[in-house]
Each structure stands twice: as structure tokens, then as C-alpha cells.
Amino acid sequence: MKFFIDTANLEQIKEAQAMGILDGVTTNPSLMAKEGITGAENILQHYKDICELVDGDVSAEVISTDFEGMVKEGEALAALNPQIVVKLPMIADGVKACKYFSDKGIKTNMTLIFSAGQALLAAKAGATYMSPFIGRLDDISTDGLGLIAEIRLIYDNYGFDTQILAASVRHTMHIMDCAKIGADVMTGPLSAIKGLLKHPLTDIGLAKFLADYKKGN
Ligand code: G3P
Questions:
Q1: 42-98 pLDDT tens trace
Q2: Which one of 17, 105, 115, 187 is least enclosed by Cβ atoms within 10 Å?
Q3: Among residues 21, 124, 123, 125, which one has the least CA distance to residue 70?
Q4: What CATH number is associated with residue 70?
């Protein structure tokens, strides 16, 4: 399972990268705005800065909602760095743009996926990744993890190689549940990733090892 961090915060990206377990980064316009990154030039520069920090794929989202606009924006984003993955919304023009980029060998991430039907379309369009938003489904009392399981079944039925990128991951158990179901990738906050470290018996055991070492030395 690949681990992506879902943030535009450079410090958090650096911290996750330093842990040695990071496979990539996902961003979206809201995450950029949260970091105070506004204006086309600054946003492009920020993507470049993120690519400098990590080795893996970096999803960069288009703002256009029409095919021509998405192609123009996506091409400019892809030209920034080979690590860039063009992130496209799950609307008709987004699917068309996804097929356009797939045919050109440019990596894509279809975003705002909330149903298995949308996931099927993303795979048919040749998306590299597709992002079901599990937390937002949970927010409206719908089974986000159930959607991941449905998509896994459909993709396995037909051998689609589009990667299921579980997004809108909110906490550590989401990561574990996605891993059990077989999501290819999860993208989540640093706090959820670091939560995987925690176990009280690890802390107790380590404290005892260190105390026993001290006794003997
Ligand atoms: O990867 C998508 C993600 O950024 C959305 O997360 O927490 O805003 O639903 P959230």
C-alpha cells in the first residue's frame, strides 16, 4: 500500500518524507488556500517546491471545468516536473481530459469520486489513480469504506490497473481499514499516519528495556 500525505504544508511533507515511508503527496485548492498559497504563479512554484521535497507522485489539481481549459492547465502542470499527476474532477469534461492525458502518457488522478459508477468511468478513461472521498461519505452517514470495497471488487473483476487512492482519510483506523480492503494507496493527514506508531505496550516495553539496561551498566 502506498502512503501519500494529503497536505500542501511543506513542514509536514518534510516530516513524513524524513520518516522514510512516504510515496507521494496529494493537494487540492482548499489545502493550498489553507497554507495561504494563492495566485497562479505562487501555486505553480509551490508544486515545484513540493516536488523537490519528495521522490514520488505529486497530485496537482486543475481549476478549469471545461475540456480545453483542463488540457491547457494540465499540460502546464505536467511540464513542471515528471512527478506531477494531473488531478481532474469527476465530471464529463474531466473524464474526457483524463482520456486525453492517459493517451499522452501523462499521469492522472480523478478526484471527487463518491460512487462505484464514477470509479468505473475513471478506470475506463485510463486514470492512473482515482480518489474516493471516504471521510466525506462517512460525514453524510454513508459507508465510505464500503465504497472502497465495491471498487476493489469491480476493478479486480476486469483487471483494471487504475489505482484506488483512498482520500478524505481522517484517522488511523481509516488507514488500517483501507489496507484490509486492499486500497492501492491512501492519502491522509500526518496525524493519521503517525497514529500507526502508537501502542502503549511498545512504550511500556521500551521503558523496561532501557531501565534493565541501566541496571546492568
Ligand atoms: O484528498 C481529498 C481530501 O483532501 C479531502 O479531505 O478531509 O477535506 O474531506 P477532506
A1: 999 999 999 999 999 999 999 999 999 999 999 999 999 999 999 999 999 999 999
A2: 105
A3: 125
A4: 3.20.20.70
Model-level pTM greater than 0.90? yes
Catalytic residue among 2, 34, 48, 87: 87
Ligand 1 interacting residues, C-beta cut-off 6 A? 6, 26, 28, 31, 131, 133, 135-136, 167-168, 170, 187
Q: Which spans in the chain are helix H? A: 10-19, 29-34, 40-53, 67-78, 92-103, 116-124, 134-139, 144-158, 172-181, 190-195, 200-216
The total of structural domains in the chain comes to 1
| Enclosing domain of residue 211 | 2-215
87 counts as catalytic? yes
All cell numbers assigned to 6: 494529503
